[in-house]
Design brief:
The protein is 46% helix and 16% strand. The termini are far apart. Helix 1 runs parallel beside helix 2. A seven-stranded parallel beta sheet has the order 3-2-1-4-5-6-7, with helices on both faces. It has two domains: 197 residues, 3-Layer(aba) Sandwich (Rossmann fold); 34 residues, no CATH class. Strand 4, helix 4 and strand 5 form a beta-alpha-beta unit. The protein is of the alpha/beta class. The structure holds NADP nicotinamide-adenine-dinucleotide phosphate.
């Protein structure tokens, strides 16, 4: 890559939350960013934030669990921004319930978005990384990968992503591609707000209760996760691969 060329990063689920903060952060690091989310119009805020700061970004509407939509999205990114060599698989949904009440469709939805979505996106993008002899994949796992009541589907998907990440690191390392997972603890976003709503708690009380159990005594912000992702996607992180980093304000394993 010449010094004047900009690397192209793809961030899924980037209309809001951790994905939006990551897209903004990677653009600030000089990457051209494809902001993917289900609803293309919903990506506008993230794109506007990036372009207002002098960065380059496009909005792309796609369901990451749909093979044809993923292929069309990546083709558009190649045409409009260039070949992507950084991929952050961040799109996610919750369908929490105790196992005996969990529907098959809630199981399938969660596994499809997190696992199938990360598989499809990585498969579509990796050929561009191989051609470039450089790539950075970051998958969003979760502290729930260690097990969490009411999240059989989500914890299985997030644990699955850790195995997926390690296998990518093994298979793709010889092409200059690294793969790592960031596993957040409690981060204040629409996702955790929805959980507060579901259990009938105000979001401030919910965050306060969570913070009291976290060693650093606060909940995380999307930028805390964007920082870790920026490290893994950096030019200097080429010898860091196949790792799972818990970013949770304290130790987890
Ligand atoms: P969020 O605020 O709910 O944002 C997730 C985004 O993903 C939404 O914009 C959502 O769009 C989009 N999305 C959902 N399904 C999609 C699909 N099939 N294709 C494309 N986009 C899709 O979530 P967040 O809290 O920022 O979480 C981001 C990631 O971090 C997720 O993978 C999550 O599991 C993980 N994580 C979060 C926490 C936390 O405490 N917040 C902790 C651990 C891990 P719609 O709004 O249209 O559904």
């Amino acid at each position: 890559m010449s010094t004047t060329e900009q690397r192209v990063a793809v961030v899924t689920g980037a209309a809001r939350g951790i994905g939006a903060a990551t897209a903004v952060r990677l653009a600030a690091e000089g990457r051209a960013v494809a902001v993917i989310d289900l609803d293309e119009a919903a990506c506008k805020d993230t794109v506007d934030k990036i372009t207002a700061a002098g960065g380059k970004a496009i909005a792309v509407g796609a369901d990451v669990s749909d093979e044809a939509q993923v292929e069309a999205a990546v083709a558009r990114i190649v045409a409009e921004l260039g070949a992507p060599t950084i991929l952050v698989n961040n799109a996610g949904v919750l369908r929490d319930n105790l196992l005996f009440k969990m529907s098959v469709s809630d199981w399938d939805t969660v596994l499809n978005v997190h696992l199938r979505g990360s598989f499809l996106m990585t498969k579509a993008v990796q050929k561009h990384m191989v051609d470039a002899g450089f790539g950075r994949v970051v998958n969003l796992s979760s502290s729930s990968a260690l097990g969490n009541r009411g999240q059989a589907n989500y914890s299985a998907a997030k644990a699955g992503l850790q195995g997926f990440t390690k296998t990518l690191a093994i298979e793709l390392g010889k092409f200059g591609i690294t793969a790592n997972a960031v596993a957040p603890g409690f981060i204040a976003t629409e996702m955790t707000k929805a959980t507060a709503d579901r259990v009938g708690m105000g979001f401030d009380d919910f965050k306060k209760a969570a913070a009291s159990a976290i060693p650093v005594q606060r909940v995380g912000e999307p930028e805390d996760i964007a920082n870790a992702i920026a490290f893994f996607t950096g030019e200097a992180a080429g010898f860091v691969s196949g790792q799972v980093l818990y970013v949770a304000g304290g130790p987890l394993d």
